[in-house]
Specification:
The protein is mostly helical and 263 residues long. The chain folds into two domains: 88 residues, no CATH class; 120 residues, no CATH class. The chain is built from 13 helices and two strands. α2 runs antiparallel to α4. The protein starts with 5 loop residues before the first strand and ends with a helix.
């Protein structure tokens, strides 16, 4: 275990130099900073730094691609050094994950129209798109990816995060007076008896005659409207600033308007 010694840049070893570069630290650095380093924090920091140094984003950042390439190579090398350190010291630096408790559901309500499972972990070096924007309307997340602003793995994680914000479909049906709580309970019980517990609530309710096509459309549309905007994912994780998000959202709208109804 590394002690609490404070060292200067001249006295640093390879690990501390990598930490300093990746976390952009100036001045004296306490050696015990590495003790609390976790894989999740390391990956998050690398993603943020990659967004600001990847040569594919040179035109967006208005910087020399050669210089950016050198910076990105240094950032990536620092990330690999620290990742290897965490792998070797996993029992000391990062205890195993504690078992997650299942999400508590309100009784009598169906689940949302998407899986509640966490997205699988992806490599922090997921690729950035290289090429022209597709000639079709794009959602904001798609526009960010096809503009080379976020890697594919981050886009997928953002989509999964957004869908987990959706309200429960059964609860929404009760709030909109489309179904009664008793009807929701009947649908859930019928779905279990038929051995179709894995079916989507709204699809099974429609097939069982509890919902009309109109009600189904209202519920699905309301569920999407009530979810949090996907842009909040990128802001909360420090990938974009609020001003940048507003500007990019306007650009995405303008692009989509050229090819069809705005999304």
């Amino acid at each position: 275990m590394i002690g609490s010694l404070v060292v200067t840049e001249q006295g640093e070893g390879e690990l501390l130099r990598a930490y300093r570069l990746l976390y952009e630290i100036r001045g004296a650095l306490a050696a015990d900073r590495l003790v609390g380093l976790t894989v999740a924090d390391l990956k998050s920091t690398f993603r943020r730094r990659a967004l600001g140094t990847h040569p594919d984003r040179a035109s967006l950042l208005d910087q020399d691609p050669t210089l950016l390439g050198q910076r990105f190579a240094a950032v990536h090398a620092a990330y690999r050094t620290l990742s290897a350190h965490l792998s070797r010291n996993a029992p000391v630096l990062e205890p195993g994950p504690t078992p997650s408790r299942p999400r508590r559901r309100q009784p009598g309500y169906g689940g949302p129209e998407t899986s509640q499972a966490e997205p699988r972990r992806r490599s922090a070096t997921d690729h950035y798109y290289q090429g022209p924007l597709p000639g079709r309307p794009l959602l904001l997340g798609e526009y960010l990816y096809f503009s080379g602003l976020v890697p594919f793995g981050v886009l997928v994680d953002a989509i999964c995060w957004q869908r987990r914000q959706r309200p429960l479909i059964g609860q929404l049906a009760v709030q909109l007076d489309i179904l009664t709580p008793e009807a929701v309970s009947e649908i859930l019980a019928l779905r279990r008896r038929n051995g179709r517990a894995g079916d989507r609530f709204v699809r099974f309710a429609r097939a069982a005659g509890y919902l009309t096509p109109y009600h189904r459309a209202v519920l699905l549309g309301g569920q999407r409207r009530l979810q949090r905007p996907i842009g909040e994912y990128f802001v909360e994780r420090g990938l974009l600033g609020c001003a940048d998000l507003g500007r990019l959202a306007s650009q995405a709208w303008a692009h989509s308007f050229r090819f069809g109804p705005p999304l």
